[in-house]
Amino acid sequence: MTSFYVENFGCRATQADGAAIERQFEEHGLVRAAARAQSEIVVLNTCTVTASADQDARAAIRRIRRENPGCEIVVTGCYAQRAPEEIASLPGVTRVIGNSHKHRLAEIAVALRQPAAVVNAEVSGFVPLASLTGHAQGEIFVSDIFAHTELLAAPVFDSVGANNERTRPNLKVQDGCDNRCSFCVIPFVRGQSRSLPLSQILDELNALVDAGYREVVISGINLGRWGRDFDRPSRFEDAVHAILDRTNLEKLRISSVEPMDWSDELVDLMASSARIAKHAHVPLQSGSDRMLRAMHRKYRPWHYREKLEKIRAAMPTAAIGADVMVGFPGESEADFEETRRFIEQLPFTYLHVFTYSSRPGTPSTTMLEQVPVRIARERNRILRDLAGAKKLAFMQSFVGKTLEAITLNKFDGESTEALSDNYLKLRLLEQHDANRWVAARVERVEGGDLIAVRDR
What we know:
With 456 residues, the protein is α/β, with parallel strands linked by helices. The protein has three domains: 3-145, 3-Layer(aba) Sandwich (Rossmann fold); 156-396, tm_1862 like domain (pyruvate-formate lyase- activating enzyme), CATH 3.80.30; 402-454, CATH 2.40.50.110. The protein has helices spanning 12-27, 51-67, 78-82, 84-88, 105-111, 121-124, 129-133, 186-190, 198-210, 236-246, 264-272, 289-294, 301-314, 333-345, 373-396, and strands spanning 3-8, 31-32, 41-46, 72-77, 93-98, 139-141, 156-160, 166-175, 194-195, 215-220, 251-254, 279-281, 319-326, 350-355, 402-410, 416-420, 425-428, 437-446, 449-454. A six-stranded parallel β-sheet has the order 2-1-3-4-5-6, with helices on both faces. Strands 7, 8, 9, 10 and 11 form a five-stranded mixed β-sheet that branches. Strands 15-16-17-19-18 form a five-stranded mixed beta barrel. Helix 10 links the parallel strand 10 and strand 11. Helix 9 (198-210) runs parallel beside helix 10 and helix 14 runs parallel beside helix 15.
């Protein structure tokens, strides 16, 4: 029986795509290998949001070729969609299957392993681009991503412990993006915004509940735009209401939602329901109005501040996080200081800080005044230090208090990892099975964790 292995790079959406690819292979009768060195087909599901993401994929191809020279290397994902010939020219790559064809990846991979006479006619009808160009070693299956309407959906699990415990499934319910931020390549590799039908969301969630899972994360590339692409448009709030009304899911965690989509209704719904985790991730990118305009972001700093203040007022103990970019072309010292002060004044509990990376085909690549790398890295360090201080203060505010948490992995013979409703990592000083709710009393902060005991 043919074996496969899928390795994912990048964001939650990519991980969710990888889970759907695994499901495809299993439906075609293939078996999942324990490691890529033991697999006959290795799929690299790539990211391309930064130059380093591309480098990681190329390095992985080289490693696989050394470890498992007899395997077929199939490269898919965002890097495959953006630069298929570049990847197909790399030694060892058998074929490149872009996001445009990812929904049929297993079908293509399996069919092309068969004798020509039995290859599915529809699959063989895809003309590999390599046969047209003559520049690549591997076959290429890529087409116009903006004509792509499929959405892969399968839960991906946040934690798999030593005893194969799986916890906190993540379900992607939206893909693609209709925004055109000047630095972002994602719309050009994932296509237009499209949503998983509500009936399918409910079916997936009910199946997870029936399997015993207690907390599920819903995610997307631009999650707050869910439902806008339907013939009869729907709102993200409608999906949340339906999940609460039509499933028995104990805890729903909502991943990143853009500032424009944090409606008063969504904030009130999150604040009023004990079944929604008190965790808001609101991408910022910059606190400078001039930079936000240059980035083509659709909000201003005062608009963002208003949203965060409403979230904090409604949920005083919620985790509030953001993505922030430093080193965007033209970012002056004054722009950066404006961002630093803005972050300092707002009730963030964590940040994801990124250094700008030029992406081919995006407007920002042609902008003048590219920020020197050493300056961008120093700005990154300053914001990470600020974020660390804010996170530490947030953690310390819970010493002596009791938090609801779900158990994840066992650290060692004496403790268990858990995650609180408001997105704090805990080390419980006892052994617990995974996927259990506990009331955890926080004793102290140690490293990046809260040390806690079960509150009996």
